[in-house]
Amino acid sequence: MHIAPFENDNKPLVDVDDSIVPLTYFNIVKLEIGQAFFYQTPGYETCVAPATGTVDVSVEGENYAA
Fold first, then answer.
1. What is the reported pLDDT for 21?
2. Residue 21 and residue 45: Cα distance in Å, rounded?
3. From the CA atom positions of the chain, what is the Rg in Å?
């Protein structure tokens, strides 16, 4: 399946409890330098995979700097 590019305003393309793929969460987030993005997916494991640039990540008090 291919998802054609579109402006999603940093909202999930596939959200938790999706009727077709209920165990999947997928989002494409586009940030400017210095901009932050916060999200939670309780009960889900998550993977942050930067396509470009570097990120600092904080998970339950654990910090991972770029």
1. 85
2. 15
3. 13
Give pLDDT, residue 1.
62
Model pTM score: 0.64
- Sequence-separated (6 or more) residues with CB below 8 Å from residue 65: 56
From the first residue on, what is the mean pLDDT of each consecutive set of 10 residues in the chain (66 residues)? 82 88 86 90 83 89 92
Give the CA distances from residue 22 to residues 1, 25, 43, in Å, rounded to whole numbers and listed in that order.
16, 8, 12
The number of helix segments (H) and strand segments (E) in the chain equals 0, 2
Paired residues of 14 in beta bridges? 26
In contact, 46 and 52? CB cutoff 8 Å:
no
Strands (DSSP E) found in 1-66 = 57-59, 62-64
